[in-house]
Amino acid sequence: MSAHASNEPREVAIVGGGIGGLTLALSLHAAGLKPRVFERAPQLIEAGAGIQLSPNAMRVMRALGLEHALIPFAFAPEALEMCDGVSGRHVFSIRAQQRRWGAPYLHLHRADLVAVLEQTLEARVPGALTTDAGVTAIEDDGEQVTLSFADGTHVADLAVGADGIHSTVRRGLFGSAGAQFTGQLAWRATVPTEKLGANLPPPTACVWTGSGRHAVTYRVRGGQVANFVGVVEREDWQGESWTEAGTREDVLADFDGWRPEITAIIEAADRHYRWALHDRPPLPQWHRGRIGLLGDACHPVLPFLAQGAAMAIEDGWVLAAMLAQNLPVDAALAAYASARRERVQRVYEGARHNAELFHLAQTPRRAGTRAILKLGGRLLPGVARSRLDWLYGDDVTAHFPLRA
Ligand SMILES: Cc1cc2nc3c(=O)[nH]c(=O)nc-3n(C[C@H](O)[C@H](O)[C@H](O)COP(=O)(O)OP(=O)(O)OC[C@H]3O[C@@H](n4cnc5c(N)ncnc54)[C@H](O)[C@@H]3O)c2cc1C
Question: Which ligand 1 atom is the nearest neighbour of the CA of 188?
Fold first, then answer.
């Protein structure tokens, strides 16, 4: 793999072609820089699972000209709501308002999102993505960065590790990040909605709460597919993988006695994937010299605010904006990290708070918390919505325009 010519725009090597890495590549191209993405997998195939793209992430998709390409694959929920997983009782409901947050709240199948990102990158920067290219080591000599692969090397002006929670780039820079198993397992399944009949979950993003467990349901693929995530406190499996499956019986046992909207999906699904949730606080440093980190590689967040990918998407935009400013590389990477750190920390803490809220045992504290949530959602929906403004209403594309 070759080095760049000196009269070309600055080349940024991106390790990892996930949601964060592909968004960074498209943002760099929009900023007049040259992205090269190296992805370990032979093909970009995302797991059979849905993803919620909140309005803050959709602002970036819109600025990259992708909103209309995504909408045909998406489902726009009518509301964000919380119900009791056993009785079905409503706790609260907040209308998902595009007008308030400036962009739609969309649910997508991960494969559809990645396909749109990949195809757009290929159309705009042909050949920018190389698959089957796992980076084994990375070295910064102060002038340029050398990536090593099983079959050769590639030299670039700078590099970004967008290679997820088990990041090779992060390990090379800062060693292994401390991961604490939370004692929680996330089950995931998707089912065509036509198989669910009367037990179809509502057309919302619905959090179903219970003692020591919760579930989230929503629809993807224009409403043709229902998505289920079920989080349960159990310690018997600690792997983190999009492809490891467990058994239907196991998931049914975990949600025994729950609403038919939940058990019907579990019964009808062909595969029940499992992912053990680990807590990793954001790294204190997100770059060294000419090598930066983005998304889960430097700040994986628990999925209880549905913001991990949204933060990776925002990172991609902000990093491109900083690199476009013609600062020295080290200064641009430092500016990116300092622009992002506070918001990411707030999201990390918000996700941990929700973990506790969703799983409160059947105690007076739970009843009290729910009563407050219910009252807040019913009587003061504007207040409930405004509590999400800092998250969904933020627009990194306005704060950090791509050109200086
Ligand atoms: C159960 C669950 C539900 C979630 N739901 C949501 C949600 O609704 N909304 C949301 O915003 N977030 C959600 N998230 C979080 C979200 O999935 C992640 O935060 C997001 O995928 C991170 O993106 P990334 O690009 O940083 O990393 P990844 O998606 O992990 O991508 C990393 C890429 O790097 C590649 N790679 C790894 N090592 C190498 C190497 N050495 N060389 C080359 N390539 C390499 C990998 O193959 C992969 O393609 C959820 C997470 C979980 C576990």
Answer: 1
Ligand 1 atom closest to Cα of 21?
25
For residue 38, the ligand 1 atom closest to its alpha carbon is 43
Domain covering 11-74+104-178+282-358: architecture? 3-Layer(bba) Sandwich (3.50)
To test the ligand 1 pocket, which listed residue (296, 305, 317, 348) has its Cβ within 8 A of the most ligand atoms? 296
Spell out the domain ranges in the chain. 11-74+104-178+282-358
With a 6 Å cutoff on the Cβ, whether 17 touches ligand 1 is yes
CA of 377 relative to ligand 1 center, distance in Å: 32
Decide: 162 in ligand 1 pocket, CB within 6 A.
Answer: yes
Q: Which residues are CB-contacts of 158 (< 8 A; sequence separation ≥ 6)?
A: 10, 12, 13, 144, 145, 290, 291, 292, 323, 329, 333
Judge whether 122 and 128 are in contact, CB under 8 Å: yes
CB 308 less than 6 A from any atom of ligand 1: yes
Residues catalogued as catalytic: 218
User: How close is the Cα of 289 to the center of ligand 1, in Å?
Assistant: 24
* DSSP one-letter code for 156: E
- Ordered per-residue pLDDT tens for the chain, 404 residues: 434 444 556 899 999 999 999 999 999 999 999 999 999 999 887 667 899 999 999 999 999 999 999 999 999 999 999 999 999 998 888 887 777 889 999 999 999 999 999 999 999 999 999 999 999 999 999 999 999 999 999 999 999 999 999 999 999 999 886 788 999 999 999 999 999 999 999 999 999 999 899 999 999 999 999 999 999 998 887 888 778 889 999 999 999 999 999 999 999 999 999 999 999 899 999 999 999 999 999 999 999 999 999 999 999 999 999 999 989 999 999 999 999 999 999 999 999 888 777 765 445 555 555 555 554 455 445 555 667 899 999 999 999 999 75
In the chain the first and final C-alpha atoms are separated, in Å, by 31
Which run of H or E residues covers position 211? none
Single out the residue of 5, 52, 24 nearest to residue 13, CA to CA: 24
What is the number of alpha carbons within 13 Å of residue 330 lying toward its C-beta? Answer: 7
- For residue 305, report the distance from its CA to the centre of ligand 1, in Å: 15
